[in-house]
Amino acid sequence: MAGRQGGLTTIEFHILGPLVALDGERRVPLGAPKQRALLATLLVHAGEVLTRDRLIDALWGDEPPASAAQSLQVYVHGLRKALGAGRIETHGTGYRLSIEPDELDVERFRRLVAQARLSLTAGNAADAADDLRRALGLWTGPPLADLAGEPISETETGRLNDERLAAIELRNDAELALGRHDALLGELEKLLAEEPFRERLHEQYILALYRAGRQKDALDAYRAARRLLVDELGLEPGSTLQELERGILRHDPALAAPAQVRAGVRPLPKPPTPLVGRRLETAAVTALLRREDVRLVTLTGPGGTGKTRLGLAVAEELSREFRDGAVFVDLAPVADPALLATTIAVALEVEEGDSTAANALADRLRERSILLLLDNFEHLLPGAPLVSELLAAAPRLAVLATSRAPLRLRGEHEYSVPPLEPPGRGSAPTFEELAANDAVRLFVTRLRAVDPAFELTEKGAPDVAEICRRLDGLPLAIELAAARGKLLPPPRMVQRLEQALDVLTGGARDLPSRQQTLRATLDWSYALLSEPERVLLARLAVFSGGCTVDAVESVCAEEGADVLAIFTSLVDGSLLRRVADGRFAMLETIREYAFEQLERNGESDALRRRHAQYFVELAETAERDVGVVDETTMHEQLEREHDNLRAVLFWSQLVDAPDVELRLAAALGRFWLIRGHIGEGRSWLEDALHRDRGAEPAARVKALRGVGVLALKQRDLEQAGNVLEESLALARELGDEPGMARATLSLAVIAVARSDYERATRLNEETIELARVADERRVLSTAINNLGDLALHRGDYDEAAYWTREAVALARELRHREGLTLALLNRGQACLHLDRQNKASAAFEEAFALARDLGYQEALAYALEGLAALAARQGEPVRAARMVGAAELLLEKLGASLDRAGQELHDQTLASVRAELSDELLAAHVEEGRTQTLDQVSATESPASGRS
């Protein structure tokens, strides 16, 4: 821990529960009860000089012993020895405890409560609820619980409990203001059973019942509260409680529940096996992140210590304390620190647009209360300053990172994850003690996974304990050993480990011994494999982010070898693990080890080329098969392989293979566009074009067009126009008629963006002619749809209806789902303006379903805008407002904006809604739409609405 001014070590003091002092992770011994009572007294009056007589009264009351003064000096000496000589100052015959506000939990508690009170007064209930959850999370039990019977406990416990109850009542107010009355009911019932005479709790309980639609129960609760107060205290309820009853009887609108805000967050990954041990570590890291002054914690330690599993356990524990939960970000497959922001953005479902990924992330997180778990950071340390930027931009963001080395950022708190403590070598533990040891429990649990018949016996327990000791308690090493338990029973395993660990110490001499032991364990595990298994394990290291069996057979197969059988053997041996979607992956530590074997075998270059060839062909096949293969399936496959695709692009740069880089980047242009990887895709394409030596001119045509389309989405019209003109010129030079048609089509879109409708019309007509000559019917359908879009911009809705009807029919015939989505959106707008609401509704509903299936975020936003316009016209202003909010959020995530026709429709929708809703209600329902899921926001049911 960092030192304090004056040379004092920072110590955390806890009185909201048992009295505890923590020096970093070390619990400071505080001595006998009277000595601890003295410390508690000094803490309660921190910063004050307490005279000797006052302290004697506080410790012994009215009848102190004759030796009280001498005993007091002994206790002061004991505390100075435990806490540091300068911690307790002498002033005459009195003493003063030197302490900083952040060192005492009750001061942090009071500061958070005061901050929450200000937030609630200012109308910011969400921040108030967050601060109060953190404040109440500081309580670990009754205050000074270990000093029961001491005078300090009797004088302070009641006052501190009153502060806690006041904070709970304030928290209830914040939760009610957020519309979370249903979740409060059970807790309020328990609180009233413990504190039946607190009127504020009765008020909150009655209001929660009423807001839950239980008016009769609310009135019954009021009558019960009144009887209790009159019978027990002889008092009538206060005016606030009486007014609440009257408000319920007259259905006062002011008592209505506000809209409940819920933020959708991806669930944390569920490990396939339970966490064994780590109770103390989980509690320590959780407590650290609950501190108000701690927002960045890094779990450090060598590979195999279980940092990821500990991080997940902590995130699971804390997720309920953050308004927007916890999000897991796996950084293991990411090779370039420049992609750190993009990777986090993908995990948070933040789409890239015309701002950088880092800026988009900062904007998204600014108002969020969220915990980010950044896993496997060690190879991306140059990108660590991004974490500081996000923390600075988002005051309610907390980050938990796992890394073999600290991030070395200001405000970082490093927590070194120790191995599991194996049974002591010099002691003679009992069988019960061995069976309860966490390292032994882990070994037994994992061994039973491969050999369900295994039982730990008194005879076999010492061998298991010896295995855990030789593996230094490293979880990964223990799991690898246990995976071989069916083949090698513990006695034989001990013998093999004795032979192996004496020799296989291939780690660098300056590495920690445990890391060398892990290397030896991996060497040993590798030595147990058959030769075909060793070869395949090494070859599998070329995959980044996992692989499919098909990919393994294509990249790693050897003539005459049964790759599938060998692969299955590696999975059974826990060297590979099954992940989602029929994919398999190695733990990163194992992958690093396997790659060393690949390089040692001299196969690295050849396997990298085969890996590149497979994924270039995969991407080019996906591009070529548009219209044959379902587009959703194709894009999902490319999304799952995105880390492998990135790995190929990196490799092509490292080995100077510009033809591979250009072919792959050119084939991925459409995928990057549809899936929203706009900034990343543009960067890859521009890099590939910069390094291109002209070996693949056809790929260059596509890459130039890809840059142009992505630049257009980022509103960089000048760059988009330049590269598209270059693409068109090169296509003409090559006689590439499809390339000419596509470049001309994209140039027409730029003309629309510049409001040059005459040029846009001419270019679309040229595209139609080129597409017919080249038999590019998908381009043809898009150009016809663009003529409809042009008509919408000009306000000629009959012409728009004509062209979009043709485009819809052709796209449907071609099974061109992306083109059909866009054509339906334009057709919906045309029909809406012509007051053909049934046709408009059918078009927007189908476009919404298609866009959602494709993952086409921009089209989803336009579909929601269209459905909002319909809802407004059909007298459903609340539903319309929520859809507008959802559409706005999608466009913000993309960094995109509505085109002219879309903006006009948006403005008309809001004007119609304002005629039905007050500005306050409109803003509330728009905000609610931003927090709802697509299912919720698109539901046909809508509650009754009205002006306020």
What does this structure look like?
The chain is mostly helical and 948 residues long. It has 7 domains: 1-173, Arc Repressor Mutant, subunit A; 179-257, Serine Threonine Protein Phosphatase 5, Tetratricopeptide repeat (Alpha Horseshoe); 279-416, P-loop containing nucleotide triphosphate hydrolases (Rossmann fold), CATH 3.40.50.300; 431-527, no CATH class; 531-602, Winged helix-like DNA-binding domain superfamily/Winged helix DNA-binding domain (Arc Repressor Mutant, subunit A); 604-735, Serine Threonine Protein Phosphatase 5, Tetratricopeptide repeat (Alpha Horseshoe), CATH 1.25.40.10; 856-948, no CATH class. The chain is built from 43 helices and 13 strands. The strands form 4 sheets. It has a 5-stranded parallel beta sheet, with helices on both faces. Residues 1-6, 500-516 and 940-948 have low confidence and may be disordered.
What is the number of helical segments per DSSP (H or I, 4+ residues)? 43
Please state the second-level CATH architecture of the largest domain. Orthogonal Bundle
| Top-tier CATH class of the largest domain | Mainly Alpha
CATH topology of the largest domain: Arc Repressor Mutant, subunit A
Helix content: 55-70%
- Tell me the span between the first and last alpha carbons: 55 Å
Q: Into which percentage range does the β-strand content fall?
A: 5-15%
- Spatial ordering of strands, largest sheet: 8-9-10-7-11
Q: Kindly report the average pLDDT value.
A: 86
Give Rg in angstroms: 34 Å
Could you list the spans in which at least 5 consecutive residues all have pLDDT below 50? 1-6, 500-516, 940-948
What gross morphology would you assign?
globular
